# Entry
Amino acid sequence: MTTPNFRFEVDADGVALIVWDMPGRSMNVLTPEAIEDLDGLIDKVAADAAIQGAVVTSGKETFSGGADLTMLQGMASEYARVAKAEGEEKAMRVFFDRSRQLSLIYRKLESCGKPFAAAINGVCMGGAFELALACHYRIVADSDKARVGLPEIKVGLFPGAGGTQRVARLMPTPDALQMLFRGDQLKPAAAKRMGLVHDVAPAGEIVARAKAWVKANLNAKAPWDDPKFKAPSGKVFSPAGMMIWPPANAILRRETYDNYPAAKAILACVFEGLQLPIDLALAVESRYFAKILRSKEAAAMIRSLFVSKGELDKGARRPAGVAPTNLRKVGIIGAGFMGAGVAYVAASAGLEVVLIDRDQEAADKGKAHSEKLISNQIAKGRAKSADRDALLARIHATPDYAALKGCDLVVEAVFEDRGVKNEATKKAQAVVGGEVIFASNTSTLPIASLAETAEKPENFIGVHFFSPVDKMMLAEVIMGAKTGPRALATALDFVRAIKKTPIVVNDCRGFFVNRCVTAYMVEAHKMLVEGVPPAMIENAARMAGMPVGPLALNDEVGVDLSWKILQAAKKDLGPQAVDPQQEALIEAMVVREQRFGRKNGKGFYDYPASGTKSLWPGLAEIAGKALDADTIDVQELKDRFLYTAALEAARCFEEGIVTDPREADLGSILGFGFAPFTGGVLSLIDGLGAKAFVARAEALAARHGPSFAPSEGLKAMAANGETFYGRAAKKAAA
Ligand code: NAD
# Structure
């Protein structure tokens, strides 16, 4: 038998070493071929009388990232194919059998009568960690990079190869549920503390220690295969169980608002599974897994958050034919809130940074931000003091523009003022020249207009970061009318170097993300004016799947900024561009009440120096009207939030601001947390179907005004039964 994805050897004591080492890949992943090989090797260990037991490890730098999600994606289309050809029942059977294949293989490993140990040498996630969980012993390398975990929930799935059952039998139920719901990546010491692994040892020793364990435990079996096994939290139906399950239900609803079928399935799997012997429990898990794998939430999340993200991260939009940029040193002008954040992520990525501000004090203040962030990492055990010293040594803070000499890229993050930006561009280009790519972090000023100051507008581009820069994973790259391919390639190379996900959009007021997020916040302003209670506005948005309510979000970005944007829109586009009631509300907040948001401790919320924020009681008076909450249709509020952002995205698509549905979707999720279970703004429309979406949008337009009116393009899609992704696929094939 040949197993191209695994090496196999047996030592003199009869202990087999199974080394997972897939050819041509930097990381092991569970593909159909790898699963087949593993299956064969387990049979071999079980059947060969000369083999006492086995150690599974990896020949790569890390263990494995888990299952190939495109394989799971493929299963859904296989279902549709079989259903069409041989009927729904047959399709269901085939799908169920395939979706539980891995679970059965792992159970075979666990119950074959011979001991298996996992020697985990690095990252071990998802289906790979489920393999380790099925082994009778787990030892992890004591390395900074080693992590174990079951992150399936992050793409709308759950661990369906025994993960829910084994974790729930290793840990107290509340901890197990939390681990499965959160999908955290655990460091070795934490995993040991939680009882998920048995030991942690220096990387060079784990295989030998795993082998020694196998030799000393030839009769090993899983704890749950012992008839006397008791789960850590006892029986489900017991006084202790009754303390756990009612709140578990409540927590699920609080955290998910029932938007994530996978989270609900985890709860059901653990609740039902803990009442059954392991084999039946695994069958229960498999049934839920097959159901969730076919859910539209899983399909949308896998597509956007795994497949599309991977493609964009790897440079799907990078112009072919431009050689990779050799980025060593970047200049950042403006060491304020954003510039300081960009300096930190660039220096963290190993780049030399020249951080410029108007005077030494301001530049140093920007650098101090990096010191604070890396010190926080040290306090959390995620970095060492040597990392801090090296990071800070890479940042040269100065008011002297001459220090920009030798920079491979310049990022500008000075005040949002055309004059200040133009002056900074000129001063920088006097030093570096016009060939060095120049990127502006403007959030509102059209790139083409800023590029006019540049020596060569083709080398001028927008790279719009989101705050806080160290946490927000998106960078919106903006093409001015004259921006050339080298500028785009360099910007994308920079974004990749600092490990953010890029979307590439065309120039316009607000670009893409801010247009959608503004629509979301404006809807909340309109609701306030209508008299919807503020708490209801915030809750309805969270129920719709948004992580932060629109009023809280507005406070974060600044209510004064909303005021400035309103005024600029009125000046540039005329008074009809703004809703007078919304304008009056924001004027009262900003001009009369001086409520600017979190920055001055008062916005839609009050921010006491100590204690938690709470909605400002004065809002009722400013709104002037109060509806009885019981008369308000909550579903309509939820729809208004999702539809207004999706409609704006569709407009951006028609105007050619965003040109790829993958970018619109990821931009919305990573840029402002748009209901991830939908897969993003355009996936929401595709998922509902353009026809249903248009019908609902028209109904909302009749009640809430023309901002909900679907565009002609959407109506045409509805009439032709088209989807954004279907059209993109056709275009790519043409
Ligand atoms: P900020 O006021 O915190 O920082 C601006 C910095 O630029 C200040 O430190 C200032 O001293 C410095 N500066 C001004 N003129 C300068 C000059 N000629 N040379 C060198 N330094 C100079 O502002 P910010 O929030 O960091 O915003 C910076 C840019 O980023 C703006 O264009 C803004 O629109 C954009 N932006 C902001 C956010 C946000 O959430 N704050 C998000 C995305 C983009």
